[in-house]
Amino acid sequence: MRFLLLALLLALLLVGVPGPARSFAAGSPTALPQLIQIIGSLLTPSEAAERKEQTLNVRIAGERRILHVRTVKSLTSDDRGWSMLRNLGRSLTIRGPAPLLDQLQSKESIGLPLKIEGRLYIRQRVLMLTSVESAVPQLQ
Quick check: 137 pLDDT over 80? Predict the structure, then answer.
């Protein structure tokens, strides 16, 4: 009987015990992507030519745009700022619910400061939108 108990304990130590602490650990394939907040504005082509720094090429429902990033912060971990986006290689696909995508694609949103929040899937270079709103009050 002791031998069986010892073998079971050894097997659990070698295989590991599944659970929340293990499945959401950093680097785990099941870890939730970071929830981030970007404050920035979508630029016209002429504005984009002037501002090469802190810009991302984004695809919104297949349409290419340039996003000038003013601030970036993580809402689920330590604030890592712009360095979080540098791993994307300056390109990002933005996906999400149709009303949020429509808001980003509207002509009225070009040039206006926006607060964009979503889950950042770094390997896929995708931001899954959770909210989009005006950032005008936050910049004053």
Answer: no
